[in-house]
Design a protein that fits this description.
- There is one protein chain.
- The strands form four sheets. Strands 4-12-11-10-7-5-6 form a seven-stranded mixed sheet, with helices on both faces. A four-stranded mixed sheet has the order 1-2-3-15.
- By secondary structure, the protein is an alpha/beta fold.
- A hairpin with a 4-residue loop joins strand 2 and strand 3.
- Helix 2 runs antiparallel to helix 9.
- It starts with 21 loop residues before the first strand and ends with a helix.
- The protein is globular and about 65 Å long.
- The chain has helices spanning 43-46, 55-67, 79-91, 105-122, 142-146, 175-187, 210-223, 275-281, 300-315, 318-337, 366-376, 398-414; strands spanning 22-26, 29-32, 37-40, 96-102, 130-133, 165-167, 192-195, 199-200, 206-207, 226-230, 254-257, 269-274, 342-348, 351-356, 379-380, 387-390.
- The protein folds into two domains: 13-54 and 317-414, Aspartate Aminotransferase, domain 1 (Alpha-Beta Complex); 58-315, 3-Layer(aba) Sandwich (Aspartate Aminotransferase, domain 2).
- It binds pyridoxal-5'-phosphate.
Amino acid sequence: MSESPVWHPFTQHGLREPIPLVTHAEGAVLHTQDGRRIVDAISSWWVTTHGHNHPRIVAAIRAQAERLDQIIFAGWTHEPAERLARDLLTIMPAALTRVFFSDSGSTSVEVALKMALGYWNARGEARHRIVVMEHSYHGDTIGAMSVGARGVFNSAYAPLLFDVTTIPYPGGGREQATLDALSQACATGAAAFIVEPLVLGAGGMLFYDTELLRQMRAICADAGVLFIADEVMTGWGRTGTLLACEQAAVVPDILCLSKGLTGGAIPLAVTLASEPVWDAHYAEDRARMFFHSSSYTANPIACAAANANLAIWRDEPVRARIDRLALAQADRLAKVARHPRVSGARQCGTIAAFELDAGQGYLSALAPRLLRFFAEHDVLLRPLGETVYVMPPYGITPDELDRVYAAIAAALDEVR
Ligand code: PLP
């Protein structure tokens, strides 16, 4: 067969690693063309919440596709989007009153940043500076990269990225330094602070505690700086609660959601805004409208999938599954943590993580070897450099999770 013309994301094709072809999936299992059954231990890049091909989501997609596939969303609307917006607001913090649709986590962040700048522009205040946390990741579009950590991922594009103020990650007893830096940035007229609540995902599954999140929110509120919660990864139960912000009783001014919004079946994102942010754009003056769209904004099929996801959260014991998974992870992680090569074993809700031979960073030579080893053991795990993490769909069975941890145990002994 001739070489595939497909250019894959975050893939160095020059390494000529085999790229498995997946034919179908159910629950936490992916089936490949060559007959393998792979356990998806990272929820296919953190999107699959309940499990692959949940029958209710599949049925909703099928039914909607037969009725209305796509409709321009500027000046037009449709029932799946209207229902989704209303139902979302019933389960989100009450201060978030408006729902803006887009297509991915990155676009939900772009929308959030533009809303924040639009807010200050409408108020006639020249506030443009965005405050971010060290090690953050918010996506790969130019704006989202600008508010994320700088490094090998984006050094080629550095001249295009806008300046931000970075506050320290509050690990290793640096909580006060984080709070002080945020206070200082807020005092000098920042427009907004964007943060991943409780877990910095792509930055290495770095956790911080609820009290710090609460204090950071309070600092922004006192200074009138908009607080943007990027719950693209942490949302939909990953940290044990529907939103991570919930654990700190934090209500953001702007909230980004994507990934698990459709149960992970189809791309969709929302940026929720509080009334003041909406009001800043509300006028008879067309020049003050919110200038953002994409062709597929609020695609009806994606909205139908999201409505089915919300129904699953209402009707099925999703929270009990999350609690069960959290316990199952704790049990297995405790055994891994005893291995002499392992450090930093930690867990937040359904997410378990640890470092293997710590000290080498994202381009650790171990990472590609681990990737290959896990693939050979029919487990989809994709370490972030030296950080190995397990973030499976909530419906993973104990046997499947055992397979994941058996592969990890073997890797600890065999991969050098
Ligand atoms: N924000 C966070 C916290 C993320 O973890 C991600 C992706 O992993 C994004 C934004 C970007 O989402 P997407 O890949 O859907 O553009």
